[in-house]
Amino acid sequence: MSLGRRGFLQFCLGAGAGITFSPLPWKLMDDISIWSQTFRGIPIEVPVPPVGEVNIEKSVCTLCPGGCGISVRKIKNRAVKIEGAEGHPINDGGICILGVAGLYQLYGGARVKGPLKRAGNRGEGKWEEISWSAAISEISKKLSQIRRNGSAHTVACISGKDRGTVPQLFKRLLTAYGSPNFISMPSSEDTERLGLKLMQGEDASVGYDLENARYILSFGSGLIDGWGSPVRVFRANSAWREEAVKGLAKVVQIEPRLSNTAAKADRWVPIAPGTEAALALGFAHVIIKERRYNKNFVMNHCFGFEDWTDNSGKVHKGLKRMVLKDYSPDVVSEITGISVSKIVALAREFARAKRPLAVCGRGKGSTPEGLQEFMAIYALNTLVGNINKTGGVRALPEVRTTAWPGVAQDAIAKRGMNQPRFDRAGTKAFPVTESLFNQLSGLMNTGKGAYTLSALLVYGANPYYTAHDKAAVAEALDSIPFIVSFSSHMDETAQHADFILPSHTNLERYEDVPTPAGLNVPIIGLSRPVVDPEYDTKHVGDTVIALGKSIDGIADSFVWDDYESLLKETMGGKWDTLIGEGYWKDAGYSPAAWSSGFKTPSGKFEFFATGLYRAGIRSHNDNDYLPRYKPVVLEGDPGSYPLVLIPIESTRLADGAVANPPYLTKTVADTVLKNNDIFVEVNPKTAAAYGLSEGAVAMLKTPTGEVKVRTHMYEGVRPGVVAIPTGLGHSAYDDYLSGKGVNANEVIGTVEDPISGLDIAWGSRASLVGII
Amino acid sequence: MFPFCFEWHWDLGHMVFHGALWYALSILGIGLTYAAIKSFIDLKKGGHH
Amino acid sequence: MDSALIPQGVKRCPFPQFALWIGFLSIFMLWAVVAAGVAWIKGLNTTNLNDYFGFGAWITADLAVIALGGGAFFTGFMRYILGIEDFKHILNFAVIIGFVCYSSALVILGLDVGQPLRSWFIFWHANVHSMLTEVAFCISCYFTVLTIEYIPLVLENRQLDKIPLVHNFSHNLHRIMAVFAATGAFLSFFHQGSLGGTVGVLFGRPFGFREHFAIWPTAFFLFIISAMACGPCFTILVTRITELITRKKLVKQNVIAKLAKVSGWLMVAYLALKMIDTVYWAMVTLPNMGVSVMDMYPESPFTIWILIAELGFCGAIPAIILITEKGRNNNFLLVPATILSCFGAILNRYVMTVQTLALPVLPFDKFVNYIPNWVEWVTSLAPFVYLALLISLSYRYLPVFPQEKELNP
Amino acid sequence: MKEEHKEGAHGHKEKYKYGMVIDLDKCTGCGACMVACMTENNVPFRKDESNKLVSTAWMRVFKATNGKSYPDIDVCYFPRPCMHCEGEHGHAPCVSVCPATATDYNYETGIVSQIYTRCFGCRYCMAACPYHARYFNWWDPVWPDKMEKALSPDVSPRMRGVVEKCSFCFHRFQRARDHAYAEGRREIREDEYQTACTQACPADAIIFGDLNNPEHKVYKLKKSPYAFRLLERLGTNPKVYYLSTRSWVRRAGDNYLAGERSK
Fold first, then answer.
1. Which chain A positions have a beta carbon within 8 Å of C179's beta carbon?
2. Radius of gyration (Cα) for chain D, nearest Å?
3. What is the longest distance spanned by two Cα atoms in chain B?
4. Parallel/antiparallel/unpaired status of strands D103-106 and D75-80
């Protein structure tokens, strides 16, 4: 056979075409494909989540006090997704970043898996597992002994909040035991409640009718950075944006840094840090001078606007005289760094606007503002007459629930309760304040306290992390010989405890959720167990009842079988609604009329807080009773600390007692956290002045402490200001959380409000020195 | 690549591409087979170049 | 020691010296194998690649070695299809270079994918619209061709050739080599082009995108021509290096000069077309996308100088040397010219991959640079060591250079 | 209009064309959409996610500034899901380049899919996507403690070495379609199929629906004078629209030559 080159070529052409169109190669490869894709049955080693019956369970999120309704998607008994509950009056289907990441609190790391007793030194991390019954009996034995020794009042409780059945149960425990020292962690709500008590005579929270307001003057409130009930405010903000397009709404944000709220506002007013009260009074000056205030309301329903004469015939200064004298736009401009024309223009806009609203509480509202500052900002609402009006402010009463039987106090309890509070709240020093956590460290570390604390119960709070001047707080708390933590997670405080009695997480338990801060209607939510407890934990309410029953002499005050029956009894007729809807809303609520709305002795709204006088605060200066700007004197001299440090509060970093789940940390920009370095924001001008470039490593020094940071240049920060993110720098929990950045509370100290005694430190003096 | 894969949709591109591909592959295969067979035949014949 | 394996009539260095040299090269290869192992076992997190730079050193290396290996197909094309007989004296060598380049490219591609075990999905679930599919098919096919072209040379080893069947097989392959060469050339034109196409079709990336001519972006054609131009340059360069190391003349100057001339004129053509392409891209394509040409060269290292370096220093200068008779016949001009030309090709491939990805497209996105880490460097440079290794072995044991005996009597 | 849509539904054209409208005036940059997406789609997290170049976020919120200095600076957030580009006739930048057909344009829904078990990780699609919407699994996913319990069976977790991206929660579409069919309906209602980010967004800034259906909110919103899309000029034809009343924000959505007028 002879095959020439040409012949061969022809053969190839033909055969190639033939094979191309035959099914042979195709079929062979298909077989290999199928074999390889099902190799070992599954594609590589990745978990295959089991399927199962789908269940949706409704509950209320308690990761923040926002009170949002959630619906949890479950596959059999696994919770796989948290979503916002449709139709819930607070969030209607929306959910915040922390809530949606909530499963990490349940399934993630750092859960305390059962009762623990400290084995090594404090904070060493050595624990001994112990049974619930043994733990309860050991703790109650210890507490009984303290009680027997006549030191019942030296036992304190730090609680994250003071409203709701669980904090009240702790309070009851102390009352029956004989200690007045129930201390709740501070927030701007403390000042606001105090202000309302003085100006309107009511024990109530300020309700802001944000949904209906159309001109929002925010004095540094991080309206969309986590202030109030976050989702609710987001929704209000969206409504404003819709109205703003039509020219019907306007938001003005007064803040030294261009926060998200400032960026989304229609106008950003970059004010000198801490001078908000001066600006508010500057606005008041313009409004009063130009007679733009609501004459009907101010003349007929307010007290202390004009000068007044007391029973002894002494003439007292009214708001009008003080404001007109002390807060002319020139003066205010000098203080705040805002131009006179802008002050005048904004004041006029506010007074002219349909449904104006002034909002206060800096950032998320985790630090209280000064009492007089609150009064100054709140006075703007009064001047335009939006108290108890649509789109205005109102004193929001607590939802009424069935009262508990009275506490059966024995002699020891009575004696203990007669002792002054350790934190001096309600004593002569600070007669109007209920609780002063910030006083603890000063009194304890200097030994100036009326007595020494011998035991501490901590629930829903993480003071070792969240308190200003962290080091001083740690030193103070460490000196308490006996600490019991009820935390579900191994947080910084639990780390320093002697016993940990772990509670169920929010998805494993019942709890009532009181009206969140700032809401405009009274509401109560019900948090429900969505899944069975993952670990050997217990409902904190049951733990407290168990303690109450086993501490000598106080069992009579704890008659309930368990927390669930207590809650059911407390909610009374609302229980069925709570179970059905997940919340109970006071549908009939409407703010009181002006004529009957004020419970002050004068029956009017009081610009001049006579309540302070009655409480025993004596001053010859009438200004001490009026809304006023009194500069907060930050520690440290401007020579060594030329800059001002302010915190950056963001929704993406949970900075309270609930730590940031890794999902959130993942969303944080690399200009906030890079590897384990935290970035502080400075204006490029400031950076240039201190020889710092983008990303430069520097020491941030304040009178409270010093930390290593990196600098991020941001045009949105006022020159001369350094801004530090909060919510980082945990030393407890798991590897996903700890060691990332620094805790801003290490460098922010405390500043005491002269009247309330609350810590009102909105920042600190600071210096920033580059490290080469 | 093939109609029995899911999300398949026919395209003129398939014809052109696969035509050219299998054409080239076939030529290579046939060429090699030819050279191999021919070598055996030559060996049988005892021819040595 | 191994003299029985060495082709007759040529002189080779003593075995110990050779062994030492091979050992030296093997150490580096071993290092590369370790690097590859790290990437394969631990995954691509061991590299500096990231979501912004899905393509990095490896794709640059792939494109570069394929361009440099273009000498094989083009020399074969000229020898078998155009019938320029002179080139048969360098063809064997060009095939070895091509074989190394293409096998390296395949290995590097195997490294570069996240699931190497699924690499064959590219054939199985092939998307015929993807340039990468075309590349994968053509490269694998053409690698087969190169193997077929390399086999006869291996079989010509003195000892192997003694076996009648082997002898016959290599003889028969030789006889029909034109068919393979033609197929190879056909495949090569496509995949060289498709490699340009991979970047040219990215209409989301203004820097890389080029207008289409027929169904291909202009980069398709430019890559073919540039591979045809720089491939022979690399062949010449490696020949000269081999000659330097062996201290022997291995290929006659007229062959080299002819190859250089062809390469030079192709470079001229390439540069002309590339200029037109660049101007059109700058004046029409980019403005339509809302970007100016200077936006494409924002900051170091991607300034306008990189373009000047590619087209001027590494383009025009070698082209001028190669097209002038004096230039290509003077080793002191020829060798630098080939180096510049090869470097130009590598630079072009680097720019087309890395710069394309480095430039942010979203106005609020940021510029990110990328520097390969050791795993990438070692594996990307390994082809050159591998080339030295295979040339050393082939040169010693195979009759690679037909003119060697004549030139070194 | 209504008729046209119906005709389209039975013809060869796409039945649905799902898309999104994101109101940047309302978006607060809170990041809830990012986490909602991660928890819905089994996206893992690592101990250190601060290297954003290897951090997977199907929905990523970009921060843009107007480039001015204090106090004129302004900031806007751009939530960026996958744009599900239609390109010309479904030739999205990524779909046409994928060598293994591991990503596909679904003509029934207009959704660009990603088949994880078919992807072999060449990352060509990532090079093609100007939005950086595609992410590579540089590591095998690890869920600490009991976090594996929180995995949804609706979305398969991805293995190392493959590319993933936003799917417009395609499993939710399937669920809605099955539900509708079970009730004997051919059409899916607007509220039946919503993505996880849309559902979560506390500011209601994300609106999702069928861009071809005049009864869906997105249909009207996309025609707003404030509407724009990202990098429209490249011809990617994305299905995610943005709204902003701020002109600098609209200009930041695309590239423009100096002096050129923006949309």
1. 8-9, 12
2. 19
3. 56
4. unpaired
Give D112's DSSP letter.
E
For residues A310-319, give the mean pLDDT.
93
The yes-or-no verdict on residue A486 having pLDDT over 90 is yes
**Contact call for residues A463 and A441 (beta carbons, < 8 A):** no
Spans of all domains in chain A: 5-41, 116-189+400-585, 205-396, 643-770
The pLDDT score that the predictor gives to residue A41 is 43
Among A255, A262, A261, smallest CA distance to A336 is for A255
Distance between A501 CA and the closest CA of chain D, angstroms: 20
All domains in chain C, ordered by first residue:
15-407 (1.20.1630.10)
d(CA A746, CA C267): 66
Question: Which H or E run contains A155?
Answer: strand A155-159
Residue C123 contacts B, CB cutoff 8 Å? yes
Q: Which of the residues C55, C216, C362, C366 would you substitute to probe the D interface, choosing the one with the greatest number of D C-beta atoms within 10 Å?
A: C362
CATH of domain A205-396: 3.40.228.10
Count of CB pairs separated by less than 8 Å, C with D:
176
Judge whether D96 is closer than 8 Å to chain B, CB to CB: no
Whether C191 shows a pLDDT value over 90: the answer reads: no
Burial A97-106 (b: 16+ CB within 10 A, else e): bbbbbbbbbb
Going from N- to C-terminal start, the domains of chain D cover: 2-251
Dist. CA C364–CA C258, nearest whole Å: 52
Predicted confidence at residue C300, as pLDDT, reads: 84
The architecture CATH gives domain A116-189+400-585:
3-Layer(aba) Sandwich (3.40)
Token digits for A186? 């501070």
A765 torsion bin: left (phi>0), alpha (psi -120 to 50), beta (else): beta
Cβ–Cβ of A25/B22 closer than 8 Å?
yes
- Would you tell me which residues 266-285 of chain A have a C-beta closer than 8 angstroms to some C-beta of chain B? none
**C71's torsion region: left (phi>0), alpha (psi -120 to 50) or beta?**
alpha
- Interface check C215 vs B, CB under 8 A: no
H helices, E strands: number in chain C: 18, 2
- Testing the interface with C: which of D113, D124, D139, D230 to mutate, by most C Cβ within 10 A? D124
Positive or negative, the CA dihedral A387, A389, A394, A397 is positive
Q: Which two tokens stand for residue A72?
A: 């949890």
Per-residue pLDDT of chain D (263 residues; tens, 9 = 90+): 333 333 333 344 568 999 999 999 999 999 999 999 999 999 999 999 999 999 999 999 999 999 999 999 999 999 999 999 999 888 899 999 999 889 999 989 999 999 988 899 999 999 999 999 999 999 988 899 999 999 999 998 888 899 999 999 999 999 999 999 999 998 899 999 999 999 999 999 999 999 999 999 999 999 999 999 999 999 999 999 999 999 999 999 999 998 888 76
Tell me the whole-structure pTM to 2 decimals. Answer: 0.92
What is the predicted ipTM?
0.91
For the domain made up of D2-251, give the CATH fold: Alpha-Beta Plaits (3.30.70)
With respect to CATH, is domain A643-770 assigned 2.40.40.20? Answer: yes
Contacts of D136 in chain C (CB under 8 A): 44, 51, 54, 114
| Helix boundaries (H) for chain D | 2-10, 32-40, 93-97, 124-128, 170-182, 196-200, 217-221, 247-251
